[in-house]
Amino acid sequence: AELLDPAVKGTLNVLNSCANTPSVKRVVLTSSIAAVTYNGKPRTPDVVVDESWFTDPEYCKNLKVSIYTIRLV
């Protein structure tokens, strides 16, 4: 919650500002937890998540995770 709450609030602030700005027609959000979530690696308290944790497309395919999600990773 310490990291998640500010991230959610910040994203909502940006989206609300965009919604209240007539010249903004589209918003593209490209950041996602999916970038480091789907890889089949064990998640234990001692694990450090870094660039080696990027999502494995084959793992996603086996889980039937949307190709759209994988494409954004």
From TrEMBL:
The keyword NADP applies. Keywords: NADP, Oxidoreductase. GO terms for molecular function: oxidoreductase activity, acting on the CH-OH group of donors, NAD or NADP as acceptor. The keyword Oxidoreductase applies. InterPro entries: NAD(P)-bd_dom_sf, NAD(P)_dehydrat-like. Gene3D superfamilies: NAD(P)-binding Rossmann-like Domain. Signal peptide: none annotated. This is 3-beta hydroxysteroid dehydrogenase/isomerase domain-containing protein. It comes from Gossypium laxum.
